[in-house]
Amino acid sequence: MNNEPTMVGAPRAGGHHFLIGFILGGVAGAGLTMLLAPRVAAELRQRVKDSARTLGRAATERYQQTSERIGDAVDELTKKGQGVRDEVLEAVASGAHEVERFATDHETSKRRAR
User: How far is CA 34 from CA 17, 29, 30, 48, 100, in A?
Assistant: First the structure.
């Protein structure tokens, strides 16, 4: 161990190597960043565009599927509604016919009773 007294604030041996390494590392990192950043940014933009296109296609496909389902449901409800309407029309016509027949029979009975 070194028994020599050290002064407060005096540079230690090897301290300047750390500082030089720190500066060189910063310069190398900045250089790599400038070298790679445009490519990374371009790749990121392309990935965002691709993702947006994929999302757009998926949204369009879902919209078309949903539109088809709704169209099918409307068609089915329309057919059912028309079927109910036809059944009601037949029931009313049948009821009207029965009322007319009852009225005719009643009139006939009244005339016979006189």
Answer: 26, 9, 6, 21, 97
